[in-house]
Request: fold
Amino acid sequence: MSRRKSPSTGCVPPPRPPRTPPPAPPRRAFNQLALGSYNEKLVIESIREAGTLSRVEIAASTGLTPQAVSRITRNLLTSGLIVQDEGRSAGAGKPRIPLRLRPDAGYAAGIHLDPWMITAVAVDLCGQVVARRRMPLEAPRDPDWCLAQMAALAREAAAEVPDGGPVLGYGAALPGPLDRRAGVLLDPPLFEGWDRVDVGAKLSARLGSPVVVEKDATAAAIGERWLGAAERAEDFVYLYLGAGAGSGAFLNGDVHRGATGNAGELGELCAPRPRAAGDDDVPRSAEECAPISTTLARVRAAGLPVPRGEDAYPWVCARAAEGDPAVREVVDGVARVLARGAAGLVGLFDTELLIVGGPAVLPGVRARYLDVITAAVNTFPLAHHVRTVRVAPSHLGEEAAAVGAASSVFHATFTPSLKAGRRARN
Reply:
């Protein structure tokens, strides 16, 4: 995840999986002058997803006229956002000149607030991590103190970008529930005293820059889309497993946030019965929706000598990888409950790609989670007879939310959106 690319190589997408999805129809552009910024973003998105594209290929994939593509790419080359590679032969006539994004043309910093950890990263324009900071948290977690640490770690990560490259902005990934439109965190679990904390405004004041606020699972989905390029160009659901469990989604080519930024809550989908209730008749999430703490508690209850602190969960995952039967039974039990939620998500959204990632999906347990979830999503949904859901591990690892928070800055800046175009015209 921390590998670097030189500026001349551009964004190179990871190898495609064995199953190649059918090509999506080209996104058609609007050639009206008023939507010039949309067309520029469309060209950037096309190059980013493919890794390299010639001008002829850009025109074919976007529907823009060759003249419009020539003008837009000339501007992007002048600004330094893209670079040219050596031409490649296309038969008779001039060789086609591939164009790539320049990774060092811009950077962003992302901050993830988790109940047990603050993580900050700086990433380049291709989503590669160039700097990282981590700080363990212990209760109580005072809001002002935490916000000060979040801002300090983000500044430190941003200060490490190579050659003092431009930092385009900051993103923050937060546990739900939140009011994304106001940037306000709304009394999240495990954060006592955090009722209606204006995280967006407070971080912005400390950093001297606007801050893009996203729910952690949504941020992870954005990061997966940005880093995954062509492999993640189709619609998908991201199952995010960490201190809690949630999901983010790309539907119809764009991130799906819902009305307030809280789309993808998973708890009731994982319940053994619909709307399982507590004594006070308030619907409860299954305890497995806190996969890390539930796994640790059950392994300790089985009598294993689990260490304390941030080494505890990696220790459990290592024991699972070694084949410890008691640990594997616990891991599989947690995975089976979460798999019910995953099957519900696939049934709701009718997608053929499910990404699984987050701090709970460490290498020692990753295969167990993928196997259990794959079986569930291809067995339980009513439409399983007409589709096969591919379940894939995240490219982002345990820093998924932090990388996604940084990628949300790029997504807001460079991703074409017809909604944004309509707002600009109105």
